[in-house]
Design goal:
The chain is an all-alpha fold. It contains twelve helices and no strands. Helix 9 (158-171) packs across helix 12 (191-206).
């Protein structure tokens, strides 16, 4: 997409996070239970419809006019990362992140979406850094335990992944004790991600950690 090439050349914001930093980041400790639905965070950020150059042009206009600028920037970032334009996507997401408070509704949504786009691009360490920051915020969102378990397992931090999975089981034992429920519980996850969480479940089942 030529528009993205032009837009990328104009970007001057450097990335705030690095994989090395995220890899060594201290894990936020899981709480006992996670019952909050947190629907304002776990949502796709879409402020314009369409596809291709026309959609990108509309989102750039929205940014320039200051009309839902953060949301437009995040949607552009998602498009870029989905189009294998990692550098541009990260730069745009970092702009959106820097323009929001971490615990604001839009700030949490931007970080949640950014983390998933990073994860799906196999940038596991930086995705973990974002989710870990959200885990340290207020509330007890129900999405955190399985997501943190997946993230940490992907970083080969398996004992910590099991600790987080145990929080999911403590919260809803009838649901998370059986991987057969994963497709219903995690419909937006890729099959490969659910398969990886099954590995976490097996490790939890073999040696469930005590609380606390």
């Amino acid at each position: 997409m030529n528009l993205f090439r032009i837009f990328q050349a104009a970007m001057l914001v450097s990335l705030a996070l690095s994989a090395a930093v995220a890899q060594g980041q201290t894990m936020t400790k899981p709480k006992e239970f996670y019952f909050d639905q947190d629907v304002s965070t776990v949502r796709k950020i879409v402020v314009a419809q369409g596809e291709g150059e026309a959609l990108a042009a509309e989102l750039v206009k929205m940014r320039d006019r200051g009309r839902k600028s953060i949301e437009a920037t995040a949607q552009l970032a998602h498009i870029a990362l989905s189009d294998n334009r990692a550098e541009l996507g990260k730069t745009l997401y970092e702009q959106a992140v820097s323009g929001t408070a971490q615990n604001s509704s839009i700030g949490r949504a931007v970080r949640w979406n950014y983390a998933w786009d990073l994860y799906r691009n196999a940038d596991y360490a930086q995705a973990f850094g974002l989710w870990n920051d959200l885990a340290a915020g207020f509330g007890t969102p129900a999405w955190l335990p399985p997501t943190m378990a997946l993230s940490l397992w992907s970083l080969d931090r398996k004992a910590e992944a099991v600790q987080w999975y145990a929080a999911a089981v403590r919260t809803e034992p009838a649901l998370w004790s059986d991987p057969a429920n994963f497709a219903q519980l995690l419909p937006e996850w890729r099959e490969q991600d659910r398969a990886r969480l099954i590995e976490v479940h097996a490790a939890w089942q073999a040696n469930p950690p005590a609380w606390p």
